[in-house]
Fold:
Amino acid sequence: LLLNAIYKRVRDVDNFGILFSGGVDSTLLAKCCVLLGKKPTLYTGAVDCGGRLPPDLVAAEQAAAALRLPLRKKVLTLDDAEHVFEEVVEAIESKDVMKVGVASPFAVACTLAEEDGIKVLLSGIGSEELFAGYERHLIIFQKDAEVNEECLRGLGEMWERDLYRDDLITMRHRVELRTPFLDTDLISFAKDIPSNLKVSQHRNKSILRTVALKLGVPEAFALRKKQAAQYGSNFDKALEKLAKQKKFPSKKAYLESIFMLLFVEGILSGEYVLP
Structure:
């Protein structure tokens, strides 16, 4: 079903990309594309905040090498990251710390794809909801509650929480986002998979990781522990550093200042009209 879901979304295009972090979702998508005879370009963005390299960047480089697929990456400075935050706040019209943090590496990847003339990007979004990938799913399972009910609830909230944000970013860069994990046939099947096949006491997305291993995804990536995009890419750390540099009491206050500045500029330019 997953291979079919991916095939339906790439059969009409050869020159496409994948939003890539080196995690199980994006690496499995890339491996399936290879099995389908496709050679996508992998895209990742991260921030160098000093210290150790961003985990997603390291994993993306290693996974791309293992799959023998081209990787387009961009490692930003703090100054670069500030411009990305401004772009994202303007694009999604939000100062929410989590939404901006998640959208920022996504926006960098879309910028690279636009530069390359890529019109279609695949995303692994939806995997967490289908196959119980969040910490809350593990907690629910440990309490002997029904994991699939939480999975369905999460799916129902995806448009407001994730998809609308991502749509705004891709439209800005003239890229179409395709989401194989949200294929209706795959959803229909996955919603009935027993909870104990999705989650064990210490591992989430168990059944998806098993499939990844069987399809040839190296163990290091099939079993890699989930790390939210804003943390694995260092964008959240960059947000914190910039807030401190500019003497704001919190990341939220820093983003609110960007939001207000953009609003004032919009009024002065005539883009926004006060009631």
Observations:
- Strands lie at 17-19, 41-47, 71-76, 120-122, 176-178.
- The mean pLDDT is 92.
